Amino acid sequence: xxxxxxxxxxxxxxxxxxxxAALLTNEFHKNxxxxxxxxxxxxxxxxxxxDLDSAIPLxxxxxxxxxFSKLFFAALAVFASLLCKPFEALGKQAPALFARxxxxxxxxxxxxxxxNKLKSSPDASVIAFLQPSIPITLFAAKGLPNKIVISERGxxxxxxxxxxxxxxxxxxxxxxxxxxxxxxDAKAAYPENIAQKGTVIFNPINDKLPEPYxxxxxxxxxTFCRISRQKNLSMLVEAFAEFHKKFSDYRxxxxxxxxxxxxxxxxxxxxxxxxxxxxxxxxxxxPFSAQVHSLIIRDAMYVNSSDYExxxxxxxxxxxxxxxxxxxxxxxxxxxxVIRNGENGILTEVGNPKDFADAIIKVLSDKDLAESLxxxxxxxxxxxxxENIAQKxxxxx
Length: 397
Hints:
Layout: E1 4-9, H1 16-30, E2 34-39, E3 58-59, H2 67-89, H3 96-120, E4 125-129, H4 133-140, E5 147-151, H5 156-159, H6 166-172, E6 178-181, H7 184-189, H8 192-195, E7 198-200, E8 218-224, H9 233-243, E9 251-255, H10 261-276, E10 283-286, H11 292-296, E11 299-304, H12 313-320, E12 325-328, H13 334-338, E13 346-348, H14 353-364, H15 367-377, H16 380-383, H17 386-396
Parallel strand pairs: 1-2, 1-4, 2-3, 4-5, 5-6, 6-7, 8-9, 8-11, 9-10, 11-12, 12-13
Helix pairs in contact: 1-17, 2-3, 3-4, 3-6, 9-10, 9-14
């Protein structure tokens, strides 16, 4: 069996999917694989990779084009987009062939670069995470002997509605040798011919986390995440305003940083709402820290207010260090897959600030419940250990 391995992802900005990919690659390296980590949508010089072992090469791809190629593929992109738009205007999926033309026009240099890499390592096993790296890899690998495993990490129901959605996935994702889903709900959202290639593997838990803490807690309700609209921080702020009426000595701690303009707008909206509700002085907006787990481990609880989520790494890590956890029961079922409601965490209705506030009040009002949630949550670090999860992935090779 080949012991070469290539991980392919769009970017490395410190997000949850990147962290999972890095931790898995580290574990494969530890198990004797000759590993490489490739980025398709950013320069390796701009990567934020605190989790990737320094012994593993981090590479990017060449995007050099001659003038003729630039002109040709720019024209093709316009033509393909015009083919797709009438279908999209009617709320329908574009035919797979039209979507493929659009994709190849946009990413032909990336496809060529990845194909050259695969040709140079024909015996390498490959994992591709996320858009656009998954279809880039599948098109690049056509006719080559490499074994390709793919894994989309977001909400597939949203992905299915896009140009490179259901029809595109049904036709071209079948080139993969195996598909890994984060949850059974995610698997069920895919076309049958893709779902039947799939297996469900939960995210691993970082093996470098602090030991679980059980004891007296600080008066903070805390979330840490990559700030984005899907996290629905406005709902969290609204819920905090509600439970703060009863627990006025508690503060809300929001740890994380936005990555783009829409993320920054969402954060600004949450801050504006806090001002309107007169609770700004009781909320701490903090930048992400590499020592985040040590900073929050004694806080009263971890909360996740997402509208949709894959398998939240922050949620898993909070459970693993023994924090009581409250999460929205959001698609694609990542929280529901690991939280047994009322036993090792609490699930609430998506987008419902009152339900969220009531759950927080329930935990803060009952120390025995909080301690029970803490003790049971910490058991997940053995169930989802990096060693156990990485072994499931290696079995696919």
